[in-house]
């Protein structure tokens, strides 16, 4: 059986390994000559270790494992604009540098809107940015409540969207293995969504309609609402989430088709082609 270190290395491509190797001696990873030599051997030999690994080599592997973990986390943060910008804004705020803070805030907000995505992650990001702005403003005026309602609104939309999305995903899966999951929180949210007018928000409306499709498959109205909403707003979802939404439509069409409703056969093919 492969060691944890071998398993982690198997997830890296040659470019990744080469980059890690160049960083081993830096203060960033804090490695020594023995770490670099061992990792170079791993890159060169590409074969499993024997069962009887010397104690010193096991310690080196443990060190390298932690170095690679650190490198992976940094790389993932750099790829995630939300984390990247959030950490920089936090640093500028903590050091009370208004110029750098405001420039980064303007850049982060502009970048968020240019992308055009408006799913739960978008609302969460906007809520976080506005909250960071609020915390910075508190340094100068602790009575400031700038955009407080907007912060709450963004956060609430993100939370409701995620809750509905998870329920829509988990309920059918649980049904496959004849289990039920507790949806009481989601059930409480359904009337609240209507009360707040959140059916005008695509990342809430689509999962709201999808849950009704799952619960009331005999009522075609929910499918029509879902499909119309999806057709109108598919551009505001990232590719992976869009595939998940198409999957909901596909599942509904399959259920109707299996019940002998041939009207859904064409729609099934259309959604299948869109997903793949």
Word description of this protein:
With 276 residues, this protein is an all-alpha fold. It folds into three domains: 4-79, no CATH class; 81-155, no CATH class; 179-275. It is built from 13 helices and no strands. Helix 6 (98-114) runs antiparallel to helix 7 (120-138) and helix 8 packs across helix 9 (184-195). The longest helix has 29 residues, at 148-176.
Q: Approximately what portion of the residues adopt beta-strand conformation?
A: under 5%
Main sheet record: none
**CA gyration radius, whole angstroms:** 25 Å
Separation of the first and last Cα atoms? 36 Å
Mean pLDDT: 88
Quaternary structure of the protein: single chain
Count of individual beta strands: 0
What is the overall number of helices? 13
Total domain units: 3
Helix content: over 70%
Main structural class: mainly alpha
In sequence order, what are the helices and strands, one letter per element? HHHHHHHHHHHHH
Q: What is the 3D form?
A: flat
Low-confidence stretches: none
């Amino acid at each position: 059986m492969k060691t944890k270190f071998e398993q982690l290395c198997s997830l890296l491509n040659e470019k990744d390994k080469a980059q890690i190797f160049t960083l081993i001696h830096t203060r960033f990873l804090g490695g020594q000559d023995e770490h670099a030599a061992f990792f170079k051997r791993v890159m060169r030999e590409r074969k499993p270790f024997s069962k009887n690994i010397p104690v010193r080599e096991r310690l080196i592997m443990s060190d390298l494992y932690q170095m690679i973990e650190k490198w992976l986390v940094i790389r993932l943060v750099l790829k995630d604009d939300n984390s990247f910008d959030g950490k920089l804004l936090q640093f500028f705020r903590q050091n009370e540098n208004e110029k750098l803070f405001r420039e980064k805030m303007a850049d982060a907000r502009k970048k968020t809107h240019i992308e055009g995505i408006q799913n739960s992650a978008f609302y969460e990001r906007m809520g976080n940015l506005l909250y960071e702005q609020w915390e910075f403003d508190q340094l100068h005026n602790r009575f400031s409540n700038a955009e407080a309602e907007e912060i709450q609104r963004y956060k609430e939309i993100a939370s409701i969207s995620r809750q509905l999305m998870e329920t829509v995903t988990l309920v059918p899966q649980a049904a496959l293995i004849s289990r039920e999951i507790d949806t009481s929180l989601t059930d409480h949210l359904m009337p609240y969504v209507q009360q707040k007018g959140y059916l005008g928000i695509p990342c809430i409306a689509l999962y709201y309609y999808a849950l009704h499709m799952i619960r009331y498959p005999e009522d075609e109205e929910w499918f029509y609402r879902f499909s119309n909403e999806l057709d109108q707003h598919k551009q505001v979802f990232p590719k992976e989430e869009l595939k998940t939404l198409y999957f909901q439509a596909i599942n509904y069409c399959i259920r109707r088709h299996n019940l002998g409703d041939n009207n859904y056969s064409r729609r099934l093919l259309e959604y299948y082609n869109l997903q793949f």
